[in-house]
Design the sequence.
C-alpha cells in the first residue's frame, strides 16, 4: 500500500454491507470469501477504500450492530484468516480498508454485559453499563425513547433497569467509566495491528450521557433529537454531549500511534457548525455529512449545504465528506423519486405510494455526478453504482429490522436498502451466490440493474460511475477547491469550477451546455446537441 497520510482527505470510500455484497458459501448471507471473489470489480470501479459494516461475532439482532466479541469475525461471515486475506488482497490492489467500531453499546450477549447481570446492583461490573433503579417499581428511570421505538430501558429480574438507546439487545456502555475507554482502545489497537486503515465509528454522538440522566423535554426518536429544524441546536441529554470530545481525543491518540490511519464519525449532529468541532485536528479525521445526505435535489438547498460544509469544516482544517446513501436510509435513487419521503429509518413498504422509478434514476444519477466533483471525500453505498433502487414492496414476513418489531410494523424500517445486490441477471440470486438463497428476497426489477447488464454498456449507471471516478482522479478533484461560477448560477442552475473542471447541474428547463470539452455527462439520451436537459449534470474541461 502506498504511503499517504492524507488519503482520507480525498478518498472515495465504498461501503460494503457484508450481509448483502456477495455470498461465497451459498447460505444466503454474504461473507468475506464472497467479498474476496468480487474485489477486482471494485478495483475496476475505481474506488480508493472500503468501509465494512460490522462482521464481528454477534447474535445479529441489529444486523451485526450488536457485537458480542469485538475481536473476532462471526462464523456467518468467515474467520479472521478470511479477513486477513481480504485485507491483503485489497491492499495489493491499492484499496484501503476501514471497519466499523460500535462503542455506544454491545450485544446483551457480550461477556461484559452477562457479567454485569450476574454481579448485581452497585457492582463494578454493572458500572460498565447504565443500570439504574426505576422511578418506582414499574417506572423506568427516565423518559428516554429507543431510536427503534418504545422505551430505552429494560427491567431485569432484580428490579433494576438498563439503558439501551437502540434495541433491548444493545445495552449502552457507560463511557464515564475509564475501563470502557481501556476496553475500546484495546479493540482499536487489535485491528490497527492487523493492518486496517481506519474505523467508522457508530453513533459516535451518543457515547456520553448528561449527568443524572435527566428526562428529555421534547421526545423524538430521530438520531439528532429533533424532527423539526435541523439547523436548530437543542440541548439533548445524549445526542452530541460536549464530554464526547474527550473520548474522541482518546481515539485519535490511539490512531496516531500508527501511520496513515483515519477515523470517521457517524454523528447525526446539527447544525454543521457544531459537527465541525468533531473534526478538529486532534479529534476525528472526518465525519459523515448527513446535512448533505438530507438535502433535497434543489438548487438553493444544495448550494447552501455545500457552502456551509466547506466553511465549517474548512474552518477547523478538515475536508468535508459527502454521502447520499447508506444502510440506514432509503437508497437515494428512490428518495429522489419522490417530493417527500418518510423520515430517516422509517422505510418504505408495499402500502406506501410507489416511486416514480424513471425520475429517481434521472435525479439520482445527477446527484451522484454532482457529489463526486466536490472537493473532499465521498462515500458510496454498495449497489448505488448500479443505480440500484430500494426494495419498496418487501413483505412484512421478511422484515428483520428491530424498528419494524418495536413499532409493531408502523415504521417498516431499513431492510429495503439492505437487499443482496445483483451481479448477473441470469444467475441464481442474480449472482449473489450460486444457490439462489438470499436472506432478504430480491425484487424482480433487480435483474435489469445487474452488473452484467451494465458492464460495457454506454450510458449505463455503472459506466457513468466508472467514468466519474476516473475523471475525478485524473483532475484530482478530491483535493481541489470549489468556486461557484456566478454567471451560470441562477434559480435552476448551479455551476462551479474545481481544478480545471466546470461542473454544471440543471434543475429546470433545458439550458445551453457551456463551451468546452465535455468530459462526462449524466445525459446519455442526449437528443439535442449542445443542450443540458433538466436534472442532468455535465463536467466540462476548462
Ligand atoms: C447506526 C448504524 O448505522 C445502524 O445500522 C445501527 O442500527 C445503529 N447505529 C445502532 O448501532
Sequence:
Amino acid at each position: 500500500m502506498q504511503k499517504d497520510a492524507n488519503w482520507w482527505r480525498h478518498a472515495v470510500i465504498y461501503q460494503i454491507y457484508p450481509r448483502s455484497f456477495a455470498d461465497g458459501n451459498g447460505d444466503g448471507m454474504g461473507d468475506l470469501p464472497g467479498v474476496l471473489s468480487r474485489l477486482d470489480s471494485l478495483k475496476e470501479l475505481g474506488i480508493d477504500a472500503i468501509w465494512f459494516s460490522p462482521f464481528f461475532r454477534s447474535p445479529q439482532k441489529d444486523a451485526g450492530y450488536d457485537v458480542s466479541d469485538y475481536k473476532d469475525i462471526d462464523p456467518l461471515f468467515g474467520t479472521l484468516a478470511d479477513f486477513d486475506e481480504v485485507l491483503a488482497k485489497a491492499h495489493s490492489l491499492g484499496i484501503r480498508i476501514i471497519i466499523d467500531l460500535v462503542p455506544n453499546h454491545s450485544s446483551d450477549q457480550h461477556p461484559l454485559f452477562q457479567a454485569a447481570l450476574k454481579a448485581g446492583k452497585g457492582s463494578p461490573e454493572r458500572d460498565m453499563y447504565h443500570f439504574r433503579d426505576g422511578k418506582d417499581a414499574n417506572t423506568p428511570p427516565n423518559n428516554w425513547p429507543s431510536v427503534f421505538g418504545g422505551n430505552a430501558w429494560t427491567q431485569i429480574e432484580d428490579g433494576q433497569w438498563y439503558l439501551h438507546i437502540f434495541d433491548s439487545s444493545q445495552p449502552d456502555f457507560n463511557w464515564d467509566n475509564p475501563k470502557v475507554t481501556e476496553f475500546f482502545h484495546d479493540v482499536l489497537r487489535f485491528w490497527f495491528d492487523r493492518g486496517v486503515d481506519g474505523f467508522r465509528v457508530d453513533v459516535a454522538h451518543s457515547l456520553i450521557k448528561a449527568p443524572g440522566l435527566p428526562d428529555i423535554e421534547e421526545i423524538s426518536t430521530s438520531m439528532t433529537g429533533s424532527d423539526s429544524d435541523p439547523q436548530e441546536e437543542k440541548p439533548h441529554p445524549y445526542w452530541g454531549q460536549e464530554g464526547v470530545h474527550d473520548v474522541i481525543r482518546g481515539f485519535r491518540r490511539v490512531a496516531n500511534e500508527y501511520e496513515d490511519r483515519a477515523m470517521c464519525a457517524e454523528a447525526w449532529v446539527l447544525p454543521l457548525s457544531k459537527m465541525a468541532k468533531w473534526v478538529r485536528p486532534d479529534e476525528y479525521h472526518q465525519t459523515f455529512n448527513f446535512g448533505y445526505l438530507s438535502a433535497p435535489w434543489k438548487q438553493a438547498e444544495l448550494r447552501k449545504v455545500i457552502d456551509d460544509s466547506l466553511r465549517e469544516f474548512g474552518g477547523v482544517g478538515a475536508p468535508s465528506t459527502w454521502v447520499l446513501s447508506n444502510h440506514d436510509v432509503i437508497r437515494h435513487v428512490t428518495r429522489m423519486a419522490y417530493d417527500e419521503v418518510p423520515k430517516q429509518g422509517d422505510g418504505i413498504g408495499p402500502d406506501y405510494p410507489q416511486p416514480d422509478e424513471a425520475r429517481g434514476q434521472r435525479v439520482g444519477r445527477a446527484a451522484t455526478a454532482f457529489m463526486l466533483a466536490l472537493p473532499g471525500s465521498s462515500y458510496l453505498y454498495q449497489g448505488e453504482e448500479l443505480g440500484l433502487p430500494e426494495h419498496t414492496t418487501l413483505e412484512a414476513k421478511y422484515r428483520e429490522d428491530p424498528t419494524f418489531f418495536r413499532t409493531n410494523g408502523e415504521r417498516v424500517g431499513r431492510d429495503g436498502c439492505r437487499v443482496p445486490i445483483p451481479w448477473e441477471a441470469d444467475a441464481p440470486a442474480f449472482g449473489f451466490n450460486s444457490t439462489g438463497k438470499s436472506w432478504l428476497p430480491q425484487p424482480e426489477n433487480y435483474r435489469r440493474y445487474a452488473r452484467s447488464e451494465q458492464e460495457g454498456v454506454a450510458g449505463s449507471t455503472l459506466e457513468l460511475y466508472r467514468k466519474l471516478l476516473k475523471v475525478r482522479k485524473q483532475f484530482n478533484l478530491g483535493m481541489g477547491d470549489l468556486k461557484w461560477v456566478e454567471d451560470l448560477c441562477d434559480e435552476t442552475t448551479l455551476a462551479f469550477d474545481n481544478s480545471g473542471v466546470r461542473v454544471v447541474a440543471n434543475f429546470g428547463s433545458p439550458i445551453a451546455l457551456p463551451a468546452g470539452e465535455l468530459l462526462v455527462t449524466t445525459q446519455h439520451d442526449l437528443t439535442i446537441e449542445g443542450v443540458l436537459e433538466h436534472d442532468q449534470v455535465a463536467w466540462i474541461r476548462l
Observations:
- The CA atoms of residues 335 and 476 lie 29 Å apart.
